[in-house]
Amino acid sequence: MKNSDKLYKALSERILVLDGAMGTMLQRYKFSEEDYRGERFKNWEYALKGNNDLLSLTQPQAIEEVHRKYLEAGADIIETNTFSGTTIAMADYHMEDLVYELNFESAKIARKVCDEFSTANPEKPRFVAGSIGPTNKTASLSPEVNDPGFRAITFEELRVAYRQQAEALLDGGADILLVETIFDTLNAKAALFAIDEIQEERKIEIPIMVSGTITDASGRTLSGQTAEAFLISVSHLNLLSVGFNCALGAKQLTPYLETLSHNSDFYISAYPNAGLPNAFGQYDETPEQMAEQIREYAEKRLINIVGGCCGTTPPHIKAIADLVKDYEPRKLKETVI
Questions:
Q1: N or C: which terminus of the chain carries fewer CB neighbours within 10 A?
Q2: pLDDT tens-digit map of 244-258
Q3: SS3 301
Q4: Residue 294: is it exposed, middle or buried by C-beta count within 10 angstroms (0-12/13-18/19+)?
């Protein structure tokens, strides 16, 4: 059975668990500038500390270790370490030429660990989601307060960048492409356009997860869309799932998931932060507290895929996995009798 068939079968049977925060885990290693550089980039003329995607090349054992911890905690799907893996985001480090390699190697690392766990327990297959972040530029809004018509990036530039990333992730072994933390739906549409091009050219069907982010209590994305408008904007493609991640804790996210769940024919995903950040930017919510809030999602049958974003760790994912195993997944509309 193909991995995509296994994925759809698993989704029809249970709530799948996505992993937690890669960045939160990597902070624990306290990597120095030298660690980020490794031997290969020791003479790079620009600072590299903070370029977490680069660690797939310079500290691959750490990336593998984080993936393994999340899989041991019960994750069904793990994300590649490629949140900033576009030429647009890598321009900050003057590493645009490394983008294909970064994504390919990151996907390979995740694929290797997933295959180990799937082989050990074929009844619980594990899947690799290629993480495609929003980039650090927005196609809908001007960064210049005195020039509202100015755009720092075009749709075409985004399409080209996302296409390169998506192809490398697929070549490295990703089962799913996850367009995530969407604050500007126009950026996401460029990514979806690029992925659809790849589907047509390669004559394949790619399971696509789309995950937006509601930025504050207004219930809108940064570019101003409500949850329902966001859903409508991305529903032109046959998606695997649509959902929300980041920005809010589990409790704050509930009404927006209800909107998606009641209006969508796709599977629904949610991976909130471990609460809201404190004054120091830290996340205080314990695994037990977070799982208890996610219980509402499960009881209301709002979700098919659930995990954690900022501040979440393997214990958070274990608590969530232990909770949702006792609940039925949300049924797709066409399967409701």
A1: C
A2: 999 889 999 999 999
A3: coil
A4: buried
pLDDT surpasses 80 at 81: yes
CA dist., res. 37 & res. 51, Å (int)? 10
Distances (CA, A) of 224 to 16, 154, 215, 216, 294: 30, 19, 10, 11, 26
What token pair was written down for 137? 């530029």
Look at the block and give the residue holding tokens 């370029």. 51
What b/e string do you get for 23-53 counting C-beta neighbours within 10 Å, with b at 16 or more?
ebbbeeeebeeeebbbeebeebeeebeebbb
Structure tokens at 32: 């120095």
Report the alpha-carbon angle 13-209-232, nearest 5. 110
Residue type, position 230, single letter: F
Q: How far apart are the first and last CA of the chain?
A: 28
**For residues 290 and 296, is the Cβ–Cβ distance under 8 A?**
no
Dig out the tokens for 118 from the structure: 């799937």
- pTM (whole model) above 0.70: yes
Q: Do 186 and 135 form a contact (C-beta atoms < 8 A)?
A: no
**For residue 198, how many other CB atoms are within 10 A of its CB?**
16
**Cross-strand partners of 23:** none
Give yes or no for residue 337 having a pLDDT over 60: no
